[in-house]
Amino acid sequence: MKHLLYIIGLVLALLPLQSCVDEEGQDNTPRGNFEALWQIIDSRYCFLDYKGIDWNEVRARYSERIADGMTNAQLFEVMTDMLSELKDGHVNLYTAGDIARYWKWYEDYDKNLDIELRDSYLGHDYSLASSLKYRILDDNIGYVVVESFNTGMGEGNIAQMLFNLRSCNGLIIDVRGNGGGRMDNARRLASHFTNERLLVGYTIHKTGPGHNDFSEPWADYMSPSESVRWQKPVVVLTNRECYSATNTFVRDMKRCPKVTILGDKTGGGSGMPFSAELPNGWQVRYSAEPCLDVNMQHIEFGIEPDTPCSLDSLQALQGHDTLIEEARKLLQ
Amino acid sequence: MTRFFSLILAVFCLFSVMERAEAQAQNTVFFGFGRANVYDTYLSPIEYAGPEMNVSVSTERHLKRNPHILFHTNSQIHAGWLHNPLKIAHEANGSLSHDFGYSYRWNNALPRLSLDAGLTVGAAIGGTYNNQNGNNPAQGRASMRMSIVGQARYVLPVKKHRLELTYRARLPFFGAMFSPGYGQSYYNIFAQGNWDGNILATHPGNALSFHHRFTIGLPLVRRTWVIGYESLLEQAKPNNLRQHHYSRSFVIGWTLGRTPKHAKP
Fold it and tell me: Which residues of B touch A19 (CB under 8 A)?
């Protein structure tokens, strides 16, 4: 029986064995949630040094506005103001009643897009391959509108569309107003415009919590589609609303032969956003993994077009979209 | 490292096939019900907790040419549905593991007490899905490990019956695991092919883990019926991420064959 007691004692000693990788969380208080948000951005946001942001100074400045008895609305306002210092459309704070966002990357610029005017070029009898709207314009130019990369577009959709447009002299791909979506959709579409494997840019990712803890740049090659590949000139129409995956699409297309980027600078948004949460349940989105251009430069603030062009309001009144018309001239 | 593990696995598999032909097996199935705590900073800085169940099948074979040596395996499935402290976000967590190896048994090390000690190799796959994240919605897990195992079994006579008190523990001491980089997306790894430090060596210094089970068995009607407590404590700090999976469960089970004579101290 004595031995049995030894065994039971050993078992009881080992049962509550705990280990050391434990949560480093904050309390669910205004101060705790503020600190948690600050910490997430401090350790995980990927553009602090690139944007020259002194995050410690930001903490000190906004911390003064945190009080124990403040309401959720007041806390949300302080956090929204703090996050707006990042000037990043990929940074959001989600609550049940509101979403903190930064949209100045396009709100402060000319839109260069009139939806009704664009729709008049498509008409009502356009074709629709998944999310790709397309038709052949009167001068035998193919016109494709990609409103979003969120909706899936398969190889079959793209190949069939390009096959249907095969007799056209050139192709206009209008991504104005496209705020992004899935990177694989954007890459899949771009891969139909090169016959060779192309170096389109680089990707880096954070390797630790330090502001400069980044991996070595990893070369991002785009392989040509094994399906139908377009061999004629292409013009991609852009404006400031081209963001995130669309920004990357424009980067990739700019590397393809026979492709011209026409319009306004894109909006940027080159950091793939990740999610985290605060102790009070509010969800945070932040840029985590930047992609670079072929010169290893950030494209967070957008990509310049090859041919700058703005929408002329007088021409618009006459039913002409300046960017589409300029693209048609280039393709003739 | 992959070649090293492949070699170890091949040797153990070869031995296991050889022993299968000549040894009598005792299989025990366990069903566990309890709670789990999952913490993975790739998904959230908040720990999730909730109910979890597991199913295990353990096998012991005594070698006929040397009854002191046992070949043993343990296969286990864990599945849990977890939530954050406010219960407004959820995670599904699951894993499948298999370990096998050899132990030496000291029968009657002390009166009515047998002690086992040995080595196992094993592998596990699994993952956690967070229902509110965007581009980091899930974390996949894959690992291989070498472990030391120990077991103590004490037979306690109670009237006409023989209660078997068994404590079994496994402590991984070397292995390898998959992990994304600190801020690396799965798109970057799998779609773009950027494998950058995603296979890591593990040891108690960076992945201290522990699996133990205490059961009380009652041989009855040609089977041993068991109840007990099981705990799986897994944790790691790969690529500056922090992870743990703590599982504690009440287990019930029974042997699927007659208890071999060798197993009785």
Answer: 208-210, 233, 235, 244, 246
- Could you read off the pLDDT of A42-97 as tens digits, one per residue? 999 999 999 999 999 999 999 999 999 999 999 999 999 999 999 999 999 999 99
> Number of structural domains, chain B?
1
B86 contacts A272? CB cut-off 8 A: no
Tens-place pLDDT, residues B132-165: 999 999 999 999 999 999 999 999 998 888 899 9
Residues ≥6 apart with Cβ < 8 Å to B121:
B5, B8, B9, B12, B99, B100, B101, B144, B145, B146, B147
Question: Cβ–Cβ of B156/A24 closer than 8 Å?
Answer: no
Look at chain A and report how many structural domains it folds into. Answer: 1
State which residues form the domain around B245: 2-263
ipTM for the predicted complex comes to 0.88
Among chain A residues, the shortest Cα distance to B246 is held by: A18
Instruction: Determine the residue of chain B that is closest to A96 in CA distance.
Output: B88
Among B117, B107, B115, smallest CA distance to B166 is for B115
- Give the minimum alpha-carbon distance from B25 to chain A in angstroms, rounded to a whole number: 26
pTM of the model: 0.89
Question: Is there a contact between B194 and A23 if contact means CB atoms under 8 Å apart?
Answer: no
CA angle A182-A186-A190, nearest 5°?
Answer: 165
Residue B217 is part of a domain; what is its CATH number?
2.40.128.100
